[in-house]
């Protein structure tokens, strides 16, 4: 006669589905945290770009006393030494590839884009700010340069 003994040599389908579901939930959590860290890193690059522009404008104004404010901004817009990189587009910025004016905007009226560094002049004071995700100004990070 045949014996109807069940062999317990593997996992049931339910056990495998539970394990796959748990792995899926952990993967979703990990991807979400990874995306948040990527956004923070990109904002950090934009802050570094804004800092480079600020230092360049400040040194131009201090080192060359005859420089006008417009010349200092123009110098920052075309400076090959800045070599900034937009973290959102991955484009490198230098005189040969694209002028800094693609990222540094001199008028408040033009809408900001992701990764842009804005330079706004008020008298002899320059306000330098970086724009992060969705073209929103990075909060609490407005740099100043003045003669």
Written account of the structure:
The chain has helices at 13-63, 69-78, and strands at residues 84-85, 92-93, 104-105, 117-122, 125-131, 137-146. The protein has 147 residues and is α+β, with helices and mostly antiparallel strands. It has one domain (13-146). The strands form 2 sheets. The protein has a 4-stranded mixed β-sheet, with helices on one face. Strands 1-2 form a two-stranded antiparallel sheet. A hairpin with a 2-residue loop joins strand 4 (117-122) and strand 5 (125-131). Helix 1 (13-63) packs across helix 2. The protein is rod-shaped, with a radius of gyration of 26 Å. Residues 94-111 have low confidence and may be disordered.
């Amino acid at each position: 006669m045949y014996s109807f003994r069940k062999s317990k040599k593997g996992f049931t389908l339910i056990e495998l589905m539970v394990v796959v579901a748990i792995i899926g939930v952990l993967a979703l959590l990990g991807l979400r945290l990874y995306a948040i860290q990527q956004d923070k890193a990109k904002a950090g690059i934009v802050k570094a770009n804004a800092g480079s522009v600020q230092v360049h404008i400040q040194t131009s104004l201090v080192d060359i006393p005859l420089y006008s404010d417009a010349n200092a901004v123009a110098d920052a817009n075309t400076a090959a030494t800045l070599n900034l990189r937009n973290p959102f587009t991955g484009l490198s910025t230098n005189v040969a590839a694209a002028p800094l004016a693609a990222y540094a905007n001199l008028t408040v009226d033009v809408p900001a884009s992701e990764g842009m560094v804005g330079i706004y002049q008020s008298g002899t004071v320059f306000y330098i700010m970086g724009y992060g995700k969705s073209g929103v100004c990075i909060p609490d990070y407005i740099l100043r340069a003045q003669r």
